[in-house]
Amino acid sequence: MFHCCRAVFPQMKRQNYGRILSFSSMSWRGNFGQVNYAAAKAGVVGMARTIALEGAPHGVTSNAIAPGLISTPMLSSMNDAARDKLASRVPMGHIGDPTDIAEAAAYLCSEAARYVTGVVLDVDGGISIGSALR
To answer: Could you confirm whether 17 is annotated as catalytic?
Structure first.
């Protein structure tokens, strides 16, 4: 991701316009038993926010999405009881759909978000406002 941003950022600055969208995880804040993963995802957030600072004077926005529990092949490999237990910990009461992430991404890359930069958008059904998954 770093190399891609480094490759396109100069052109975005020259044209005074650009959108950079990074994907982190709800684990970027830290999570039990995931020090390596949390560190990597926190690095994504740091990079996105630094690019936001450097890009803002040039019309370049940089944001990150931190998905929560989303119905992906990884979660679909779990049995129903395990999935239900995870869903019960989400304040909205269910696991998200990939469309939820896609809609957030479309917004952050649109003109409607032209004044939004340096944001980590939690798309997680509210789980980030509660306690960490245990």
So the answer is: no
**97 near 69, Cβ under 8 Å?**
no
Average pLDDT of the chain to the nearest whole number: 94
Domain that holds residue 24: 2-125
From 17, 37, 107, 115, active-site residue: 37
Residue 133: inside a domain:
no
Residue 54: C-alpha distances to residues 9, 29, 73, 118 (Å): 10, 23, 36, 10
Say how far apart CA 23 and CA 58 lie, in whole Å. Answer: 22
Distance CA 81, CA 88 (A): 11
What pTM does this model have? 0.91
Question: Residue 91 maps to which CATH number?
Answer: 3.40.50.720
